[in-house]
Amino acid sequence: MEPLKNLFSRELVAWTAFHLQRAAPDIEADSFIEAVMARLPALELKARAQLLADALHERLPKDPTLRFPMLRAMLHPDEGGDGDRASDAEGLRGWAIMPLTLLVGQHGLDDFDGAMALMRDMTKRLTSEFGIRYCLKHDLARGLAIMEDWADDPNPHVRRLVSEGSRPRLPWAMQLPALMADPTPMLPLLARLRDDPSDYVRRSVANHINDISKDHPRLTVDLGRNWAKDAPPERLSLLKHGLRTLIKKGDPGALEIFGRNAPAVSASLLRLSASGVVMPGVLVFEAGITSLADQPQMLTVDYVIHFRKARGATAPKVFKGGSMTLAPGECMLFRRSHAFRPITTRRYYAGEHSICLRINGVDQDPALFDLTP
User: CA-to-CA distance for 105 and 128, rounded, in angstroms?
Assistant: First the structure.
């Protein structure tokens, strides 16, 4: 698979230079390409986008009243916003938009309203979610006031920007500390978008809710309970995705929203296929789960492995298991396997580990095994 950084290729740089010279004829396209390509190959994705933003900043007029019309003239007339649509002779779109948004966010806030308007236009060609965060960090109240009108925009990419650009913990982007500390200014806007006809927009709302849950779990559960009342299937799906971190952690309030109450079950001691695993290897485990309830109950069954760390302590990691509905007195065998193999996101340490089932957020008795990396 080709590295993501190659999204910022020589071809993208060349189209940026072509439309830069078209909008500002005094700027020489070839020298722009040479200057950028001298440094581009050694950089990763975000640094490549910043390099292009810096190169544009050096060459364009600093006055926003002159700069912004030139940037707008460089945009592709197609407002579809699909990242797979590359720039061409008609204008810039796709990943070529990211450096433009960084440029406006980092250097255009002297004309705040103009910067926000340009972010709205650019997001239609891919997304302005990275650049607009500079606007929101500069003046959150003013930015959100402008975005209120965007929640009703006919273009789904603009509506999505309301939610995605304001995510407190957007990946690859700087965080928004004010919204991490107090997400309530966003809640009315998210409520307006929760039943958006576009799944693209609704998924962004779900990811925003998940961001909030990492700093304000109780607020998120209360929001989930409120939104779940008389909710259509699409909103319930949004909530399940938005509460996924809390559900995975076994938060009782989040699980209760989806009918997963405190479990009335008896689970047999977890049986393991071996007392030890030598990597690479597979551990098979199973347990019988019997319902003690007097009516059917829905159960979410995950499993938790407590991995040994460098200094001997252990840290839990939750893995998805599955869901089941048990009738009164019914018993079902839960059986899964876990592969232990080298991965870049975890370092394994030799010694005793443990594994247990987590049923509707409640951990069952653990079983022990040794792991040899």
Answer: 9
| 272, 286 contact by CB (below 8 A) | no
pTM value is: 0.86
* Of 346, 274, 289, nearest in space to 322 by CA: 289
Q: pLDDT (tens digit, 9 = 90+) per residue, 38-50? A: 999 999 999 999 9
Catalogue all structural domains in the chain, each as residue range(s) with its CATH number: 1-128 (no CATH), 265-372 (2.60.40.10)
**Dihedral sign computed on CA atoms, order 138, 207, 304, 338:** negative
pLDDT digits (tens, 9 = 90+) for 122-177: 999 999 999 999 999 999 999 999 999 999 999 999 999 999 999 999 999 999 99
Report the C-alpha gap between 209 and 203 in whole angstroms. 10
Torsion of CA 355, 358, 361, 365, to 10 degrees: -70
- CA angle centred on 73, ends 18 and 29, rounded to 5°: 20
